[in-house]
Fold:
Amino acid sequence: MAFKNIVVTGAQGMLGQELVPYLTAQGYRVTPLSSKQLNLLEDSHAMQHKLTLAEPDVIIHAAAYTNVDGAEREPELAMAVNKDGTRNLVLAAQELGATLMYISTDYVFDGLKTDGPYQPVDRPNPVNTYGLSKYYGELMVSELMEQYYVVRTSWLYGIYKKNFVQWVIESARAGNEIRVATDWLGTPTWTGNLCAAIETLMNSGQFGIHHAADQGVVSRFEQAQVICQSMGLSGDHIRPITLAELDLPANRPYFSALDCPSLSVPSWETGLNAYLTQYKALTRDPSQLR
Ligand SMILES: NC(=O)c1ccc[n+]([C@@H]2O[C@H](COP(=O)([O-])OP(=O)(O)OC[C@H]3O[C@@H](n4cnc5c(N)ncnc54)[C@H](OP(=O)(O)O)[C@@H]3O)[C@@H](O)[C@H]2O)c1
Structure:
């Protein structure tokens, strides 16, 4: 094992809660930091002070302002957390000699690519404030550090947060009609698969920008139909509409599938099945949720 001490920011988030036990089970010494323990609105000295005790070899920076529509209402906060907070964490990491892994997003892209999934070298051009703030976060890392990882992922879902898959299932069971876009394409990624990808990249020594998502391209509408089929539910409640008809406060990239050349990644359907196994076990016995 190349590293021993790992700090995870955003440890109480959807990814953080999956990542901490995963890395611990792999034998790393993991220090999980929630927003109460390390807030990205603090200055770099305060962050450094809080990180010192953990003696991190690697800081996996999973904390972020993640409310895509909310970022249009409060852009200053989104920027303060995702851009300035990341900059201050970079400065603290440098003082401690730690490598930083910044978890980023498919939303750094504009969705206009027509010749296949986005490559790590493709030019970001965000179409909403959240995407812009995350892209600025990337720049803080890549411009200030030499040894860093930027890991972009997409359409994340996992058991630790209400998510699209759960919404589709629960709406089907309740008989509630849902409106789902047919022209919004990307790659759903299960947090369990992302944890394995993060560990692989962290030990690769291949510093720079990477993509880590499940494989395949699907519309939100097709994804919803496959979810229902996999659960033995009727998909009659899923009404096909366009992304424009959803009239969301923040623009979304119409196409944001990520190609992952540095990884061997499973299909999104494999990720979905693994998640559904977890989900079924939890809905039978919620006490299994750590
Ligand atoms: N979810 C997706 O579809 C998706 C897709 C692509 C990339 N990503 C990226 O993946 C990473 C993990 O996302 P996620 O889905 O796990 O998000 P999440 O569930 O919203 O978790 C984000 C965490 O960040 C913390 N946080 C927010 N503001 C903070 C602050 N000022 N200081 C410290 N911590 C703060 C939150 O803490 P509180 O709960 O206490 O506020 C929360 O625990 C993020 O970097 C996100 O940009 C997510």
Remarks:
- The first strand starts at residue 5 and ends at 9.
